[in-house]
Amino acid sequence: MKTQKVLGLSFFEGDLEASILQAQEGGLLVAPSAPILTDLAHNPAHREALEQADLVLPDSGLMVLLWNLISKKRLIKISGYLFLKRFLDILDSSTFWVMPREEEMIAILQWLKDEKGLPVSPQQCYLAPFYKSGAIDDQALLELIQTQKPKTIIINIGGGVQERLGLFLRKQLDYKPTIICTGAALAFLAGTQAAIPLWVDRLYLGWLARCLQNPKVFVPRYWNAFKLVPILLKYKDKSPAA
């Protein structure tokens, strides 16, 4: 698998279809956004999760645009949203889903059944507790997954947390499922957060849809993401923690 180092992370060098094939081999997949990348120097547990992931998608439009301006080696943006949309089309019933809230779980399960023809029972789901900062240890979740042994685990909780949970599972499980951490992509697809048309995602404007839906939460978050510009110009392929 060809990768390219940016900020110490091994971003996948390929297109969407190649990333789908790679993900099917198992392991931890992450798709860090710009706000997540700005925190690499200050959040060692999250940095470890991103550095140890098996497949890192170049999902951040800001990161890809800037990198392609300053580097001779170009990256192709692979949207976590488009990745998950395509990956759901090839899923079978051997899945497990980590959800943030019961009402969102109910809505997503109904959407999976109606739109994807994929019946998922509540027994294939887990309502995540509040995870504190640092490394995660969730033995209750681990036991459920060890018992069911699904081929695919989709973690639908906040970025910056789901990657740490994914790394915990990747390290502790006695087999190698595909563990998908694509931020709020599932919520976008199912409509439990702002719906994002494909043309919006292709124009790197998913951040704008989120800001328009919930400006109090997302405007400060994405404004803060512009800190990525000086960080990337300074460190380039090196980790900000080096």
> Gap between N and C termini, in Å?
25 Å
Question: What is the general shape?
Answer: globular
Largest sheet: 6 strands, parallel
Instruction: State the order of secondary-structure elements, H for helix, E for strand.
Output: EEHEHHEHHEHEHEHEHHHHH
Average pLDDT, all residues: 88
How many H/I helices?
Answer: 13
Number of domains: 1
The portion of residues forming beta strands comes to 5-15%
The count of strands amounts to 8
Structural class: alpha/beta
Q: Which spans of ≥5 residues are poorly predicted at pLDDT below 50?
A: none
**Spatial sequence of strands, sheet with the most strands:** 4-3-8-7-5-6
Helix content: 40-55%
Which oligomeric state applies? single chain
Rg of Cα set: 17 Å
Structural summary, described in words:
Helices cover 47% and strands 12% of the residues. The protein has 242 residues and is α/β, with parallel strands linked by helices. The protein has one domain. The strands form two sheets. A six-stranded parallel sheet has the order 4-3-8-7-5-6, sandwiched between helices. A two-stranded antiparallel ribbon has the order 1-2. Helix 4 (61-70) runs parallel beside helix 13 (228-235) and helix 11 (206-213) runs antiparallel to helix 12 (215-224). The model has no long low-confidence stretch (mean pLDDT 88).
Name the features.
globular; alpha/beta; 47% helix
